[in-house]
Every structure is written in structure tokens, then in C-alpha cells.
Amino acid sequence: MATITERKIYDIIGDIYASAGSDSSDGWQDTYVKLCALLDSGPGSLNIFDKRTATYIPLGDTNHDGFVEEFNSHYYSLLPFRKNIESLKTGQTFDRERDFSERAFLESELYRRYFAEMGYFHILHHCVVDVDSVASTMTFSRPRSKPNFGRPERRALATILPHLQHTMRHYIDLSNARWQGRLSAVAFERMSHSVVVVDAAHRVIYANERCAELFESSDGISLSQDGRMKVAQSGDSRRLRTALERLFASTSNSSEPCGAAIQITRNSGARPYQLVISRIVEPNFKGGRGEALAMIIVTDPEQSVSPSDKVLVDLYDMTPAEARVSALLADGMDINEVCKVLQITCNTARTHLKHIFSKTDTHRQSELVALIAKLPS
């Protein structure tokens, strides 16, 4: 039996706070291993439980390799006290010896086929925190040959758990914020438009991948060596600078309309880029008024933004051939050009077009093109 001392307890509490602010789960793994050693626990785990999918995501784990994956896919459905565990709220504990019949547990398929060999008999399962769609849980175990967790172990846990609850809330909030940030980044990367955010000095703070390609092409808009957005034509540069200066001089809130729309001439002679500029304010770390920034959305009129054929098939029940005709028309081709590209007769193309009009509730090519232009690419 491990000796429980105050120093060991407070060392673990220190590790808990260090783990909460880390991007890595390594700290949680080390902390949980120390907890198991302190409590003389056998296999178990510290988890995030996703209620939407009823799956456990391990942060710390002393089970055999692959156990949590096996538990998610197979064991959890066999758990005889599953309802007991799922009903726990923040700070509540399931004690198998106290809360579930020993006979029912010993006769369960899960114990006979798996847990007996693994050493799961005495089980303490804690709901550390319960937050919306996720919960943080922690499980300790001992085999049947050992006594259940006694008063010293439970006192040690009672000292540690409030700190774990506090830091786990922070960890979940931080993880959710990072997850939402990644989703936002993915969404911006998948936009058909170029998006760039600049500060008052025109320094680029953020540019999605499509905007990076636009800078690389240097067709009227580029990125200077010092990281500023640069426009080739002097007249365009003056108009952009004036628009940004007015925007940054404004004292309106970010929720109010404030911005400009300008065109930027292209060196290639293609139709000008269309820029829509709006003001955003990023709060500072205290949540107060922070730095004003400008978000610039760049549209390339030469760029095809028609949706994929699959989108048209799924939305309007078009055949693949009808979807191809629709997409080419949306790209600016006339019906004769569509016939040449697809190597079909004009009668066939017009038959497709008649079906397309019926399925999209449009009556002219201009209506069809306008409808398709509004769909995601």
C-alpha cells in the first residue's frame, strides 16, 4: 500500500494546474499515473466524455494499449451500471461496492469475459465536471484480491478533486476555443473568395490560402517584403489608402456598417478585382475595446465559382449530364459552346435545358445562372 503524504498530494495539485494550460495531453498522463500510484489504483483513466457520441477520449490512461478504443466500441454497451455513470453530475462519484450489487456485477458478461482478468472489481468513477455536451470523468480500480479504497485514499481525493474540477473547466473551455478557432480557419480556407485582414499600417494579420495565391500572382495586388498589402496602380493605391484611413478613423462599433467597396486594376488586363472592406475590432485580453482591424474580401470576376456537379445533382435531382450543362452555362458559356465542349447535339442540349428549368423552377438561362451563382462552390 502506497504511503499518502501531504507533499505527494500537493505535488499532484501543482501538476494539475500545469497540465490545464498545455496543448499536449502528456501532462495529464503523467498526473494521472501519479494519482494512481498515490491511491494504489490498478487500471483506469482520466477522460473527456463526449455525450453526443457516447465515447471516451483519454487524457490519462493506465489500461492496456487499445483499451479505451475497445471500451468505446464494445465494452461500454455491456456495462451493467452504465445508467448509474451517465446520471452523475459534477462532483458526484459512483462507488461500485456501494452503488451496484456485487452479485449482479459478478454475473455480468462484462466482468466474466473482461474485467475479472483485467483487475476491475472495486471501481470508483468520478464525474469531475459536467459541461453541456461533454463531461470530464476519472476512474480508479482495484482487483477482488485487494480491499476497496479506504478513508485515506478518499480523503486524498477529496483534497485533490476541487483543484481538478477548477482546472478541467478551464481546460475544456480552452479546448473548445481552440476547436472553434480551427473550424473558423477551415471555413475561411474553403471560401471561394480571397480574405485578408490588415491593421492600421496595412500589415497583413491574416490571409486565407486563396488570398496567398492572389498575392503570389502579383496581378495588381501583392505582398510587400515588410508584410504589407500592396497595390500596383498608384490611383488604386490612393483609393485603398483613403478607404482604410477613413475606416480606422471611425469610432463606430464593429457591429455598425462601416467600410468601402473599390476596384483594383489588374496588370494582366483582366476585369478588375472587387474589394469590399469592413471594420472589425478584436477585444483585448481584458475583454475591453481592442485594436481595430480591416477585413478585405476580394472577388475575382474572372474566377469560376459554379458549384460542383454533385451539388447540383443532390440539390435539384439533376442527372450528371444536366448538372454538367448547368455548370458550363454558369461559367459563362452559351448553349452552342456547351454543345461543342460536351460533344452533344443542340437538340440534346435543349432537352437537357428544358429538364433543368423544370427542376430548378426557372424559365430563362439568366435566371438559372443567377440561381447557380448563389450556391456554394
What is shown here, in short?
The chain is 48% helix and 20% strand. It is of the alpha+beta class and 377 residues long.
**Beta-strand fraction estimate:** 15-25%
> Strand sequence of the main sheet, in spatial order?
2-1-5-4-3
Question: What's the Cα radius of gyration?
Answer: 31 Å
Number of helices: 15
Question: What features would you describe in this structure?
Answer:
There is one protein chain. This protein folds into three domains: 6-184, GAF domain (Beta-Lactamase, 2-Layer Sandwich), CATH 3.30.450; 192-299, Beta-Lactamase, CATH 3.30.450.20; 309-373, Winged helix-like DNA-binding domain superfamily/Winged helix DNA-binding domain (Arc Repressor Mutant, subunit A, Orthogonal Bundle), CATH 1.10.10.10. The protein has 15 helices and twelve strands. The protein has helices at 6-20, 26-39, 67-78, 82-86, 96-99, 102-107, 109-118, 151-189, 209-217, 234-249, 309-316, 320-330, 335-342, 346-360, 365-373, and strands at 45-50, 55-61, 93-95, 122-131, 134-142, 194-198, 204-207, 221-223, 229-231, 259-264, 273-282, 291-299. It has a five-stranded antiparallel sheet with strand order 2-1-5-4-3. The protein has a five-stranded antiparallel sheet with strand order 7-6-12-11-10. It is elongated and about 85 Å long. It starts with 5 loop residues before the first helix and ends with a helix.
